[in-house]
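Retro notes (design track)

What went well: tokenization of the new backbones is finally stable.
What didn't: we kept losing track of which sequence belonged to which structure.
Fix going forward: every design gets posted as structure first, then sequence, in one message. First example under the new rule, 169 residues:
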């Protein structure tokens, strides 16, 4: 049974009040530490094509300012492994494992105030058949790299948001 729009609003309000009662606060609420970090972090250069997607996503999410208080350095590593074989011993499914080490340093220099590592995995198919093309497999691989890079960037932003109080006002 579907609720009306008014019913959904009442349920959402009740849910929010319940969360507020147990100490829940929205991460990006006005005045919250995570909200205060937006526009204060510039993303340093990252090498490679998948890294371009990662850097673009970080800039999109962090609102990197030209006069930022912090510089975010990221080292991205993607590793491809075959996970499915045909009877003819041809790999038709691949996983890409992504690891991103990151360090957030004051723009004025000094030790990292936040650092860490995020990991994730995605996959793609590369069928081995007369109708499958090398272009389709390459396109699937590039799309998987793009998805993985964006996911890793989102994980970095979440980690920074969780530690935003360490960044100060």
């Amino acid at each position: 049974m579907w609720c009306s729009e008014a019913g959904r609003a009442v349920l959402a309000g009740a849910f929010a009040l319940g969360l507020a009662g147990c100490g829940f606060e929205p991460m990006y609420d006005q005045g919250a530490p995570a909200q205060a970090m937006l526009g204060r972090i510039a993303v340093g250069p990252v090498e490679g094509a998948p890294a371009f997607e990662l850097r673009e996503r970080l800039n999109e999410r962090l609102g990197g300012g030209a006069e930022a208080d912090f510089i975010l350095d990221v080292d991205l590593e993607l590793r491809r492994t075959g996970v499915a074989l045909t009877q003819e011993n041809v790999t038709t499914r691949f996983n890409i494992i992504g690891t991103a080490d990151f360090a957030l340093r004051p723009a004025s220099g000094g030790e990292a105030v936040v650092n860490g590592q995020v990991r994730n995995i995605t996959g793609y198919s590369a069928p081995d058949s007369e109708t499958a093309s090398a272009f389709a497999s390459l396109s699937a691989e590039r799309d998987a790299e793009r998805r993985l890079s964006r996911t890793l960037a989102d994980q970095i932003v979440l980690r920074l948001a969780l530690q935003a109080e360490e960044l100060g006002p």
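Added context from the reviewer: The chain has a mean pLDDT of 81.
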